[in-house]
Amino acid sequence: MAEKKVNQEKSVKKRNWAFVLYPESAPKDWREQLARSGVACAISPLHDRDVNPTGEPKKPHHHVILVYGSPTTYNNVKGFTNGRLGQTIPQALEQVKGYYNYLTHKDNPEKAQYSESDIQTLNGFDIRDFVELTKSEVIRLKREIQAFIRDNEIMEYADLMDLLMDAGEEMEDHYEVAANNTVFFDRYLSSRRFRVAGGGEDRREHERSRSP
What is the pTM of this model? Predict the structure, then answer.
C-alpha cells in the first residue's frame, strides 16, 4: 500500500513546485541555470540563521518556488532540482502564496525573520499572480482612488488610468481595482464633470422653480 502511494505521488502533475537549495553543494552557476530554464521562480534570501529543534544551526540554504507554464510531472521536476542541480527532491505546492510567505518566515514569528526585499525573482515570477484582493481591501482601495481623483482634480477615466499606470508598482493594486470597476469610476468622473460644468446648480434651480 505504501509503495502504491509513493508511485501515485511521483506520477502527480502540478504547475507549482518548491525545493530547498544548499549553495555549498549546488553548481556555481545555479542561478544562471534557473534563469536559463525559463521557469518562473522565486528564490528566498539565504537562510543562514535557522536552527534545528535541538538548537543546532541548520546549513545555509535557499527555498525556491518553481512555476511551470503547464502541469509538469514530479519526475521531470526532480530531474532538474535533484538531477541537474543536485539538490533536494521537489515538493508540489497547492498554495503558492503560503509558501512565498515561508521564504521569509513571515507567518512563523518563532523562526528567524528575513527581508522580503531580498527575495529574488526570475523569468517573470510575480506573487501578485497568486494573490486575490479581499473585499475589504478592494473597498479601501476604491476609497483611496476616489480621494486621488478628488485631490488631483481628475475629470476623465483615461487620465485616471494613465496616472495610475505611470505610478508603477506603488499603485499596481489601485490600477487593478480601477480597471475592474470601470462603471463605478466612469460614473463618478461624469458626475464630477457635470457638477464643475454647473449642471448641479442648474438642476437645483430647476427643482426650486417647480416648488409651489
Answer: 0.67
Polymer length in residues for the chain: 212
> Which whole-number Å values give the CA distances from 138 to 90, 173, 181, in the listed order?
35, 9, 10
85/145 same-domain check = no
| Residue 17 sits in the same domain as residue 122 | yes
Q: What is the pLDDT of residues 194-209, one digit of tens each?
A: 988 875 454 444 444 4
Q: Is residue 208 part of a domain?
A: no
Spell out the residues 6+ positions from residue 14 whose beta carbon is closer than 8 angstroms to its own. 71, 72, 92, 93
Q: Phi first, then psi: give them for residue 82, nearest 5 degrees.
A: -95, -25
3-state secondary structure of 200: helix
Report the alpha-carbon distance of residue 50 to residue 44 in Å, rounded: 13
The DSSP 8-state label assigned to residue 68 in this structure reads E
State the amino acid at position 8 in one-letter form: Q
Helical (H) or strand (E) element with 75: helix 74-78
Considering the domain architecture, whether residues 126 and 43 belong to the same structural domain is answered as yes
Query: Which of 57, 208, 12, 31 is CA-nearest to residue 123?
Result: 31
CATH number (domain holding residue 28): 3.40.1310.30
